[in-house]
Design brief:
101 residues; mainly alpha
Length: 101
């Protein structure tokens, strides 16, 4: 169900609190394409990890305001052959980095 995609997006660090209509439409498209929820969660994890792992002296990034921000990363992860352990590690690192900020 597309609600799982939206909940994963809602839990992504660095995004604004609102889920808008375009986010719901994209989640619905992912669901209809048969993209498994885990496959959609992993790109959100990767995008969040990339944002959090930026150098401390780098200019701050704006807030993620749309699930579409992660669309290119979703397509990237669909092509990757990374195993679940890779994304478990990233989730662990995100939790650590989020606590430090």
């Amino acid at each position: 169900m597309c609600a799982g995609f939206l909940e994963a997006y809602r839990m992504t660090p660095g995004k604004c609190g609102a889920v808008r209509r375009p986010d719901r439409l994209l989640a619905d498209q992912l669901h209809h394409r048969g993209v498994p929820l885990e496959t959609a969660e992993n790109p959100l994890t990767l995008a969040a990890a990339r944002r959090l792992a930026r150098p401390a002296d780098a200019p701050p990034l704006g807030t993620i305001r749309s699930l579409a921000y992660c669309s290119p990363v979703i397509e990237e992860v669909l092509r990757l052959q990374a195993g679940p352990e890779c994304f478990r590690h990233l989730r662990h690192r995100i939790a650590q980095l989020t606590l430090l900020r």
